[in-house]
Specification:
The complex is a heterodimer of chains A (about 100) and B (about 270). Chain A is α+β, with helices and mostly antiparallel strands and about 100 residues long. Chain A is built from two helices and four strands, in the order ββαββα. In chain A, helix 1 packs across helix 2. With about 270 residues, chain B is of the alpha+beta class. Chain B folds into two domains: about 110 residues, RNA polymerase, RBP11-like subunit (Gyrase A, domain 2, 2-Layer Sandwich); about 120 residues, DNA-directed RNA polymerase, insert domain (RNA Polymerase Alpha Subunit, Chain A, domain 2). Chain B starts with a strand and ends with a helix. The chains are: A alpha+beta (about 100), B alpha+beta (about 270). The interface between A and B is large, with 43 and 41 residues. The complex binds zinc ion. Zinc ion binds next to loops of chain B.
């Protein structure tokens, strides 16, 4: 993953996320939208084969980069929880 | 978040995840499909091929054979010290030598012999080519790790899909106990239980709504839970199904961590 900043101001953050597609960007978008101070979160892929997604985050009252960091931390915690719980459930279950 | 395993077999796993959203379920599904590496034959040297099949076709067929993968034993070529040129840390050589006698012979995937005893075809029963009497095939093939994003032959999964959890409910006040829905349901979810219609094995429901159409009094409603997903993961044989899910979660986690590193630098 190679992320480049296109615009970075207090309430607006636009980045190009190279090497990613819908799986990651949609999850990030949905997670960010849970946060009340997010005004807009979305991404666009200019071309399905040739372009990388450009992710835009607009916030109100709170700084965009802080909101992004919190969103990512939430995603990390959820994935970790899934990993842990799945391992627990699968190792207890006998193979048929 | 709650996870329940419904079935676990050597090549498939069904499980229920409660308390996640569609975005997470889909990210996980797509990661298993396109990001999780598996071994496949990627380069073939045809030393002799007198069969009717073209060399290219043969190479294509060899590439599609699922190979048992040990992810810790091999590097992805782009991450290997050899810089993708190919070495024993990122490549495994398989050879195939077969000649038909006086009878026609079918070459199967089990005829491939591997340099690494752990990296072998997941099934030996896959036919590769049919040889007429005295036709001969000598082939050297190189397997490597790759991801589904690159080529579908590297996918370790045959099926990875999820569906919503069905909620089948019968309104007792409207139901006239005609039993038409019991007949209509292809999955046998509904049953006539004395003087009332009850449900069983609702997780099998395919939400076809045949029962809703049959029910003249409109007593049946089919709904779905919005935060629960039934996953079905079938392995191609390359990796055990539970390892597929766990590794995919690890890959997703790693990507989030990379993004977090970037966010921290802002
Ligand atoms: Zn190498």
């Amino acid at each position: 993953m190679d992320i480049r900043v296109i615009e970075n101001s207090k309430y607006v953050l636009v980045t190009e996320i190279r090497g990613e597609e819908h799986s990651f960007c949609n999850l990030l978008r949905k997670t960010l939208l849970e946060e009340e101070s997010v005004d807009f979160a979305g991404y666009m892929i200019e071309h399905p084969l040739l372009a990388s997604p450009v992710f835009t985050l607009k916030t109100k009252r709170r700084q965009a980069n802080v909101v992004l960091r919190e969103g990512l931390e939430k995603m990390l915690a959820r994935t970790e929880e899934f990993r842990k719980r799945f391992h627990q459930a699968a190792s207890q279950h006998e193979t048929e | 978040m709650e996870i329940t395993i419904i079935h676990k077999q050597s090549d498939a796993i069904h499980f229920l995840v409660e308390g996640v959203d569609v975005a997470f379920a889909n990210a996980l599904r797509r990661t298993m499909l396109t990001r999780l590496p598996a071994m496949a034959i990627d380069e073939v040297i045809v030393i002799e091929n007198t069969s009717v099949m073209y060399d290219e076709m043969l190479a294509h067929r060899l590439g599609l054979i699922p190979l048992i993968t040990k992810l810790d034993d091999y590097n992805l070529p782009q991450e290997c010290d050899c810089e993708g040129k190919g070495c024993s840390l990122c490549q495994c050589t398989l050879t195939l030598e077969k000649e038909a006698g006086d009878q026609e012979t079918v070459v199967y995937s089990r005829d491939l012999s591997s340099q690494d005893p752990k990296v072998v075809p997941a099934s030996g029963e896959i036919p590769i080519v049919k040889l007429a009497p005295h036709q001969r095939l000598i082939v050297e093939a190189y397997a490597r790790l790759g991801t589904g994003a690159e080529n579908a032959k590297f996918q370790p999964v045959a099926t990875v899909a999820y569906k919503y959890v069905p909620v089948v409910s019968v309104d007792k006040t409207k139901c006239d106990r005609c039993g038409a829905c019991v007949e209509a349901c292809p999955k046998k979810i509904l049953k006539l239980d004395g003087d009332k219609v009850s449900t069983q094995n609702t997780l099998d429901c395919s939400m076809c709504e045949a029962c809703v159409q049959e029910c003249e009094s409109g007593a049946i409603t089919i709904d779905s839970k919005k935060d629960s997903f039934l996953f079905k993961v079938e392995s191609s044989g390359a990796l055990p199904p539970d390892e597929i899910v766990e590794r995919a979660a690890d890959i997703l986690k790693e990507r989030v961590r990379e993004a977090l590193e970037f966010a921290g630098s802002l």
